[in-house]
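During the reporting period, our protein records have gained a structure token line. A sample record is set out beneath this paragraph:
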Amino acid sequence: MGRVNEEVEDDTGAVLKYQRHANGRGFVSPRARVQPSAFVAATAYVESEARIGAGTTIGAGSWIDQGAIIGERVFIGQNVHVGRDTQVGGGARLGSHSRIGMDVRIASGAIVEADAQVPDNAAIGVPRKAGESRGFGRASYTADKAA
């Protein structure tokens, strides 16, 4: 079955410890909470203080940064980076190779297309704050196209 605990040295020389998740064998920090029914691909990482909801799928090569909260039944494609302290609502879909910045809010059911780059502090499909124009943010987010 292989080792359950792994150690990885980061760029600063610090040794980070991970446990292999039973469903998919991905790397999960002992300080993260990942529901047993979530799938974490063998080459995906979930950092400390992150929370992953039931039925969520995290694809190969993806990285869920510290403090991120991922809801239930979220699909995260391959090679996706979800930034620190980002929140992703249930049923959302994050396309492969997308980069989600820090402290981003993605509403339940929202779609982030493949290769998208979402800036820090963005809100996707989230009701606007008081004082802003009426309505909601975009329900989907696509990568900028070259002119």
In short: Confidence is low (pLDDT under 50) at residues 132-139. The CA atoms of residues 104 and 122 lie 5 Å apart. The longest strand covers residues 15-20.
